[in-house]
Target: LacI family transcriptional regulator
Amino acid sequence: MNLRAPVTLLDVAQRAGVSVATASRVLNGGDRVPRPELQERVRAAADALGYTPNAQAQALAKSSTNVVGILVHDIEDPYFAAIANGVMRAADERNLLVMLASTFRDAEREIAYLASLRAQRARAAVMIGSRRTDAESLARTASEVGSFLNSGAGLALVSQSGMPAHTIEPDNRAGAAELARSLAGLGWRKFGILGGPEALATARDRRDGFLAGLADSGLEPVAVEYGDFTRDGGYAAAEELLDRGADVDCLFAVNDVMAVGAMSALRARGIDVPGRLGVAGFDDIATLRDVWPGLTTVRLPLEQMGRRALELAIEGGEPSVETFKAEVVLRESTARA
Amino acid sequence: MNLRAPVTLLDVAQRAGVSVATASRVLNGGDRVPRPELQERVRAAADALGYTPNAQAQALAKSSTNVVGILVHDIEDPYFAAIANGVMRAADERNLLVMLASTFRDAEREIAYLASLRAQRARAAVMIGSRRTDAESLARTASEVGSFLNSGAGLALVSQSGMPAHTIEPDNRAGAAELARSLAGLGWRKFGILGGPEALATARDRRDGFLAGLADSGLEPVAVEYGDFTRDGGYAAAEELLDRGADVDCLFAVNDVMAVGAMSALRARGIDVPGRLGVAGFDDIATLRDVWPGLTTVRLPLEQMGRRALELAIEGGEPSVETFKAEVVLRESTARA
DNA sequence: CGCGTTTCGGGATGGGCTTTCCGATAAGGT
DNA sequence: ACCTTATCGGAAAGCCCATCCCGAAACGCG
Model:
C-alpha cells in the first residue's frame, strides 16, 4: 500500500509499543513467547504495516537459512525434471526455498554454482546427474564439494559416486541386467547397444549391466555404438549402427530419450518396431509414456530418489549410499509377434 | 580445509594487514581500487583462508541481491520446463541466482512463495502459467503482486494478464485460428475440440481462436469437450467425446500434452491417426517431437519467451505487454491420405 | 619551497534481525 | 510479610559486509 517503504521490525515494535526483542519473539515464535496481549498488539501492528521480515537479515543474525540448492544438468530433460520435482516437493513440505540451476553439463558452472550456494549459506544441496570421469574436473569438483561440506551444509548426490557425501544410486547394473534377461526370455537374440558417453558412469553401468545380463543368457551383443546421452545422441547412434549394417534384432539404449531418438531414426528408415527391431530404454520417463509403440524400459522411482536425496542432504551425518531398485517394464516396443 | 571455521572478511583483512574497507574494495572490485600491491596481498590472504563472502551480509549491506525467482505450476510439465529454461539461461548470463518453485497449481502456494521472494529481497520474479479466473484468489494474488512490486522488485508474467506487471503473451488466439484455417485447408471438416479448464485464460483463448479460425472457413465445431490441462485430461476428454458418439474427423486439443493423451486414448480404441481421425495440439513441446504420428501443433518460442520475461522483470519500468507470435507446424497427425 | 588538489587507506556507521544477559515484577514458599 | 524462583520485557551486543567520510600522504603547479 505504501510506496517503497521498507517496513522494519523496529517500525512494528514502535507501533505496538514494545521493544524489537519482543516483536521478534512474537513474530518468529522462537524460544520465549510473550504475553498474549502483547502478541496481539505486535501481530496487529505487523500486518497493519504490511511487515515482511528481511530474510537476509534473519539469516545473518541466526547464521542459517532455509535455502537449499539443486543442481541439474538440464531442467528440460525430463529425467532431471522428475528428480528435481521430488526434491522440490520434499523441500516444500519442510518450508525450504529452492535454488535451482541448470549446469548445462558444464563442470565449471557446476563448481561456480556450488560456490554460490555456499556464499548463500544454503542449508543443503542436491546434485543430480552422472559425474563425468574426467580426472581434472573431478578433482576440482571434489575440492569444492569438500569446501561446501566444510561450511556445515548438507549435500546429497544422485547418480554420482566418489564424493564424500550422501549418495543416491539407482541400481543401474542390476536393472539393465534384468532387462537383458527379460528380453532374451522374450526371444530376442541379436542385440545392439546404444551406449552413452564412456565418461558417464551411469551410461557405463547400464551398458555393463546389460552385457552381464546377456551373458547370463549365454548371449553377447552384436554391436555397440556410442552417442550423446540425449535424444539426438540416440538418433545418431542408431543411424550409425544401421549404416554399419549390423545384423541386430533388438536395440537397447542406455536411457529413454536416446531410445526414443533411436525409434525416430528407425521410423525414418521405415524399420518397423517391434516387427523388425525391438527397442528398449531405461528410466521410464513419464512424459514418454505416450510414444508409440510403448517403450520397454526400466523404471526408476525418480521422484522418490529426489525426495530421499533432500532428506539425506538435510539430515547431514556420515556419508551413506542408498541404492534404489529398478524395475523392468515390458511394453510394445519389444513385443514378439 | 579447516573444519567449520567461518572465515570472515575481517580475517582476510587482518591476514593481509589491511583494513576491512580495503579488503572489501579489493574483493568486490567496487568503485575505488586499492593499490596493486595491496590487492595482491588481500587476494592471497583470501584464498589462503578459503574466504567466501557471506551473500546474506552483502545483501543486507547493500540492500539488494542477485536472486531472481521463477514460479511455475509444475516443473515436470515440459511446457514450463522450456520457459523456465529460457529464464534460467538469461539469469545465468547475468550472473543471477534462480529460486524456482513449483506451485503445483495451488494459488495459496503461489502467493506464499511470492511472499518468500519478497522476504528474500529478490531482485525480480517471473511467474509462468495461466492465471485462473477465480475472482477471490485472483484478488489475493493481485494484492501480493502489488506488495511485491512495491518492494521495488521487478516482475514479469508469462501467459497471464490482468496484473500490473510486464506481461509476455503468446498469441494464442491468432495461432489457434491459423491452425484451424490450415486444418480446414487440408480438408478436415468435422472438428472436435478438447478444451482445458474454462477458468484458464490460455485454454479459453486457444479454443476461441480455433473457433474463430473455423468460422473464417465457414465451419463450426461438431463437439467440444473439456478436461484438465494435462495428459490425463486429454485422454479423458477424448474418451468422453468418443463415448458421446460425436461424429468428428479431427481433434484439436488446446495443448500438446492433452493432444498426446488424446492420441493414446484413440490408440487404445484402435482408431487410426490420421487415417480415421486427425489430431492437433498447441505448444510444440520438444520432448514430444518423437511421438508418432508426429503431432501437428502450433509452435511457441518458449525459451525466447522465458528469456524475454527475465529481461523485462529486471529492467522494471512501466508495465508492458509483449506478444509472441505462434506458428503452425503441420505434421503427420493431420496428414490427409 | 609552499600551497592547493587529488589519491587512497582506515575508522566508523548502518543495514535488519536474533539472542544473550539483566533487571524488574509477579508468583510461590514458609 | 520476607525471601526465593520463575517469568517476562528491554537494552545491547553481535552477525558480516559496504560505504561514507575523514585524514594523511602524494602530487602538481607556480
